[in-house]
Design brief:
By secondary structure, the chain is an alpha/beta fold. The protein is globular and about 55 Å long.
Length: 240
């Protein structure tokens, strides 16, 4: 039985195209056979570059009514049309309706900040100051503090790109406050810090498709721990 949550599960049409991008991605092929269930509070998508994390998150965001470049559902602009047609063959099961929401993607955050500036009074909802007048990390924290509120559904694609390790800890605190007030998050990330949120579900995307794993089973955590335990040995191994 599914939890009473905003986003419940996602799956692919049985008659969706076979082969070619993005349907040849192992994660997309896997969704023909099994459904991806979401934790009522925090779900992570992890894996190497090119495994389909961003592609899947983008398709889900568009189905849910977000701009493919990011923002709230009310933020409508287009810089360049590069999204796939995966959304045409993907199904998303929703539960209760979210009062708030935001789709953040690191690669197009600059475009979102520009679109906000172009709206008369747009910056008022983001701390009253243009996000372009702040550092990358500061602008993301401003966005998070102003938009990641209670009772909302938030999709984040590699938010760590803007954040130092210390800032990642700060954002975890903010996410926890939001989750405690009834929000739900789906985050694609490479950061061992961000994916450490307690009791979260972590899905590893790779050649085998899609599998739920424990935090300590992720390659991100294992590599980081091994490196920090003995960086000199790791350097010798790499350079030899």
């Amino acid at each position: 039985m599914l939890y009473d949550q905003f986003l419940q599960e996602v799956w692919l049409d049985q008659d969706a195209p076979a082969g070619g991008y993005p349907y040849a991605l192992p994660v997309v092929e896997a969704l023909r056979e099994k459904r991806l269930l979401f934790h009522p509070r925090m779900t992570y998508l992890v894996g190497e570059n090119g495994t389909g994390k961003s592609t899947l998150l983008e398709a889900m965001a568009m189905i849910l009514g977000f701009n493919p470049e990011g923002g709230t559902k009310n933020l409508r602009f287009s810089t360049r049309d590069t999204h796939s047609d995966l959304r045409m063959h993907l199904h998303v099961a929703k539960g209760k309706r979210a009062r708030r929401g935001f789709f953040f993607r690191a690669e197009s955050f600059y475009n979102v900040a520009s679109a906000i500036d172009d709206i008369e009074g747009g910056t008022e909802a983001y701390g009253g100051r243009s996000l372009h007048l702040q550092s990358h990390g500061e602008s993301f924290l401003t966005l998070a503090a102003s938009q990641f509120s209670n009772d909302g559904l938030f999709l984040l694609d590699e938010p760590e790109a803007a954040l130092s390790p210390g800032r990642q800890l700060s954002i975890l605190t903010l996410l926890h406050q939001s989750i405690s007030a009834g929000s739900q998050y789906v985050i694609a990330t490479h950061s061992p810090i961000l994916m450490a949120y307690p009791d979260a579900w972590i899905y590893r995307l790779g050649e085998s498709g899609l599998e739920r794993v424990a935090y300590d089973e992720t390659e991100h955590v294992q590599i980081t721990r091994n490196f920090l335990a003995n960086p000199e040995r790791m350097m010798r191994h790499l350079f030899e």
